[in-house]
Amino acid sequence: MADAATTPLLTSHEAKPAKALSIDDAIETYIGATGARQLLTAMLLAFAWAFEAQQVFMSVFTDAEPTWHCTGVAAGDPGSFCSLAAASASASACALPPGTWEWDRPAETSVVSEWALKCGGGGPALVSLPASSFFAGNLAGGFLLTTLADTHLGRRKMLVLSLVTMSVAGVLTAFSPNVWVYAALRFVCGFCRSTAGTSAMVLSTELVGKWWRNTVSVAAFVFFSVGFMSLPALAYTLREASWRNMYVWTSLPSLCYAVLLYFLVQESPRWLLVRGRKQEAIAALRQIASLNGGEGITTSSFTKLETCAGEVGDGVAGGEGMFATLRSICERRWALRRLAAITTATFGVGVVYYGMPLSVGSLSSDLYLSVAYNAAAELPSSVLSWLLMGRFNRRSSLVALTAASGLCSLACVVIPDPEAGAGGSRLRLAAELASFFASCAAYDVLLMYSIELFPTSVRNSAVGLVRQAGVLGGVVAPMLVALGRERSYWSFGVFGLTVGCLGLFVTCLPETKGRRLSDTMEDEEEAAAVLSGG
After folding, report:
1. Of which family is this protein a member (predicted)?
2. Which CATH number is 24-68+102-265's, of 3.30.420.180, 3.30.300.20, 1.20.1250.20, 1.10.357.120?
């Protein structure tokens, strides 16, 4: 080191300046390879997606339209108006005289039957209002809250706050007296939930070494599948009980999990360094190193972080305002172009991703089995996305997945109705599952792709906006599903065209396979210039 200080001027101006230690290198240098306990902590964070999945798809059961049957004289007369209506899959009981029919299960098993939403004059709009309100809350929360994880609160505090408020809103939903309060609380629940998954994914990937990032991301998708698969089992167990029990039994465990995270998980050292909080970053790195069995690590051991924290801290995007990260993205054409392209593609995928599980009732299959099949399709799709991210280009993978999802969705329109025979029902279910499978894989790849497209200083905000684009598709999906119960082209047809066409927007994005993560907007601009030959 002393030689470097006395280097002659003649040679010093010719030598290239030493490149500051990147945060990737810092994590690898100071904590070593990702250990089992460190990986376990990241997996614990990823488990937040299981509770997310339960809230996202809860309405598939709580807002389902129950089956019904004829009563009295009409039940024994096959030629009666009620019996003829019951034999038609598309007929509604609302047009029948009172007293000639009743629900197969107690009215309190669904909000549709308890509050007579369909027969009370509201129609499809009122039936789909709670689900659409949840996704609208997601959209609003994603825009207003997601930047806080990049600026004031950080990843850890944002995650814990989101989980606690989401859980409390879920418990309160169980006490809704009418559909309007119910829809309002679903909006609040969606608003609070909007940043949970994003913060969990970004934090878990920033706590491990670069070789484990894709694996940890896929673990989040696997846990999402686990949460999704738990719903049909829970709903079947509570099939004769009130729909309110579903909210209680999913919200209370989520609240306990949030308390556990608060005490067991540390803040992202990458985010702390970007914010210029070096001492806190060192404490976080020391805690991670202890998980890997690191010994004898003191503050003096982190001298290389001086330049790293100084230079990166100066690159904090856009200052300290709540929307500073969004302003930083909008001020750069390349960043805005990337965000516009990937959010457009994600919207198309989101329509299918959120719409297909809601539309399984239109296939005249058993609701519990159909949802279980959809949930099971998430597991192999997570494995597929992991393989695609490791071996293939991001853009070509996404184009292939969105095209496959669109074609299979359109096939649900062309395949004969289930009334034509059991064969038609099985074919339509298979096409629906294939479309959902491809959209799940595409959604997973899009989220991992977005992590690579944006630097640390704006990553949580960018990934959050990408997720909200998918949620916007979820806002539209319930209305399409309600319309598609009468004419399938309004659901499956629109699903297929949307995901197939909008998926082509990924061709406007740069390829990121094999690239390291950037820390600031300036770093990303340099990396993009190198790739373009500039």
Report:
1. Belongs to the major facilitator superfamily. Phosphate:H(+) symporter (TC 2.A.1.9) family.
2. 1.20.1250.20
